[in-house]
Amino acid sequence: MRPQKIDDTALLARLIDVFRSKGYEGSSLNDLAASAGLKKASLYHRFPGGKEEIVTAVLEHTTTWGKTHIEETLADQTVPARQRLEKVIDNIDALYAQGTKTCLFRALSMDTGVPTLDSLIQIDMNNWVQAFKTFAQEIGFTSEVAHQKALQTLINIQGSLIITKGLNDTTIFKNTLHTIKYLYYPTL
Amino acid sequence: MRPQKIDDTALLARLIDVFRSKGYEGSSLNDLAASAGLKKASLYHRFPGGKEEIVTAVLEHTTTWGKTHIEETLADQTVPARQRLEKVIDNIDALYAQGTKTCLFRALSMDTGVPTLDSLIQIDMNNWVQAFKTFAQEIGFTSEVAHQKALQTLINIQGSLIITKGLNDTTIFKNTLHTIKYLYYPTL
DNA sequence: GTCTATAGCTAGATAGAC
DNA sequence: GTCTATCTAGCTATAGAC
User: Fold this and answer.
1) C14 C1' to B12 CA distance, Å
2) How many angstroms separate the CA atoms of A31 and A36, rounded?
3) Does residue B99 lie in a domain region?
4) Looking only at Cα atoms, what is the longest distance across chain A?
5) Is it the case that residue B26 has pLDDT exceeding 90?
6) A2-60, pLDDT tens digit by residue?
7) If interface means Cβ-Cβ distance under 8 Å, which residues of chain A face chain B?
């Protein structure tokens, strides 16, 4: 067997970047292949189901990223709570490259004609909310308040990414990320 | 001259709806024409510059919407300040149809290959920020605090729209809109 | 596993009848 | 002003050589 030009995880990373900058319809198979240094036909070898299989794989890869970098990190009882939260914020900062890259969920949550996407995104978002909510409950907030704080966390992240892109000012994302820990530790 | 099947403002309203649900690349001229009850060639008669002229007109229409429903409403000294803010929040609630419709800026701020779009969106967003900032200063906040409140207003709107869509739960948008007035009147 | 070549289709855009 | 018909370019997807 001939060796792969690019391994699966590197390939997925390239594909994610294309989708989140151009969206589903805006990303052609030529775009996707080119960013991976491959030709269209080679992409079909790796993903026989075509564009739909590619975007599904990309979303599933994002799901596992969230499981380790958000959910497990926030729930890791061997680390002090505040330190866990700061680590997660760092992870999110890296995911969005300090606000210079947009969110894959946002890029893929348009009307695409691929009904599966919406439910995959919904599952991921629910997992994120649940992770932050569980964390907030652990440090003493009631279920209801914890839920509101979790939602506000995601709202701040997504909203600041949009405004950062629109105004072309990454300090907005940076400042918003910085305020998130005060949602959970108001007395700091 | 033959009568128009649909007048300019109604036409623009239909076109906006297509763009904000499907994005720029996802909206084909057939989609756009069909939603207006016209054929492609008729759209070219109204917008000789094609898709780029259509999307530009759509964004300019949104700019004038913002001028009247946000900027002028917030600055209207003949109305009590709190009442102006509540009116603007109502206008925003209507614009996004209680959270069921996504934001045009968000839909069009992907990598489209149409460089004009980014700067049009940036101008609109800046106008919105400036309008809320001026309002916040008028009711007593310092320039720096007023700026932060204006940014947080837009972040909450955009973020809650994304999360509302992702989780398929319009109560999130409703609740977030409801909290915006407490940004400006914390003692309420 | 990757590639070239190509099928079949739909996109954006035009020409010209009414 | 709207339409049908059509052009070209790009799209997704496949076949088959290496």
Assistant:
1) 23
2) 9
3) yes
4) 60
5) yes
6) 899 999 999 999 999 999 999 999 999 999 999 999 999 999 999 999 999 999 999 99
7) 21-26, 102-103, 105-107, 109-112, 118, 121-122, 125-126, 129, 151, 154-160, 162-163, 165-168, 172, 176
| Mean pLDDT computed over B140-151 | 98
Q: Are A20 and B109 in contact (CB under 8 A)?
A: no
CB contact under 8 A, A23 and B22: no
Residues B85-112 have a mean pLDDT of 98
What is the dihedral angle through the alpha carbons of B53, B58, B64, B65, rounded to the nearest 10 degrees? 180
A37, part of any domain: no
Q: Which nucleotides of D are covered by protein (CB under 7 A)?
A: 1-5, 10-16
Domain count of the fold of chain B? 1
Q: Give the minimum alpha-carbon distance from B92 to chain A in angstroms, rounded to a whole number.
A: 16
- Within-domain flag for A20: no
The predicted-structure confidence for A124-181, as pLDDT tens digits, reads as follows 999 999 999 999 999 999 999 999 999 999 999 999 999 999 999 999 999 999 999 9
B163 lies in some domain? yes
Kindly determine whether the C-beta of residue B1 is less than 7 Å away from any atom of nucleic acid strand C. no
Task: Give the global pTM.
Answer: 0.98
DSSP B69: I
Are the CB atoms for B124 and B108 separated by under 8 Å? no
- Nearest chain B alpha carbon to A159: B159
Domain that residue B111 falls in: 56-184
